[in-house]
Design a protein that fits this description.
CATH class: Alpha Beta
Number of domains: 1
Radius of gyration: 15 Å
Strand order of the largest sheet: 1-2-3-4-5-6-8-7
CATH topology: Aminopeptidase
Number of strands: 8
Order of helices and strands: EEHHHEEEHEHEE
Distance between the termini: 23 Å
Structural class: alpha+beta
CATH superfamily: Gcn5-related N-acetyltransferase (GNAT)
Helix content: 25-40%
Shape: globular
Number of helices: 5
CATH architecture: 3-Layer(aba) Sandwich
């Protein structure tokens, strides 16, 4: 299982590569962006090192890391990332997304996350999960648009959203 290029009406999701680090460092540079995702903006070199680790794959043989950069087709600039950590033996995929501040509020995160969820539906994955900061209404809306439902479970202060065979989840096809 490896990420492939995914296309939507306005976006191309391209498998993440360390060469994306310089441009993505600019996309992720707004400190306000990190209010909900944590951490702080990374330098291009630090981001490149992170992308090298991600591109190398999970050190856990039971998990597969799938990471994409989100490219706006008009203009070809990078605007964010989506990712899934897939655990095939558990039939589980954990999703995450981030879109740079200048591109927020235009539906790009929803469009990219739904493309990712659609790709995952073609795999042996019965349950999708996302963890969303309880005050991040925009990310909660993205999770809902992907067919995930809010649960009462929290992990590291974030609310678990699920779809499929888990507690409080719906069906993957509900999006």
């Amino acid at each position: 299982m490896r990420p492939v290029v995914l296309a939507t009406d306005r976006l191309d999701l391209v498998p993440l590569h360390p060469s994306h680090a310089d441009e993505m460092a600019l996309v992720l540079a707004d400190p306000a962006l990190h209010a909900f995702i944590g951490g702080e903006p990374l330098s291009p070199d630090a981001l490149r090192a992170r992308y090298e680790r991600l591109a190398a794959g999970s050190p856990d043989p039971s998990a597969v890391w799938c990471n994409w950069v989100v490219r706006l087709r008009a203009g070809r600039e990078l605007i964010g990332t989506v990712q899934a950590t897939v655990t095939p033996a558990r039939g589980l995929a954990e999703l995450a997304w981030v879109v740079g501040s200048p591109w927020q509020g235009r539906g790009f995160a929803t469009e990219a996350a739904r493309a990712l969820a659609g790709w995952l539906r073609g795999l042996p994955v019965g349950r999708l999960v996302a963890h969303v900061h309880p005050e991040h209404a925009a990310s909660a809306a993205v999770a809902a648009a992907c067919g995930l439902r809010r649960t009462g479970h929290r992990q590291d202060g974030e609310v678990r959203w699920e779809s499929g065979g888990g507690p409080g989840g719906g069906t993957i096809g509900s999006a």
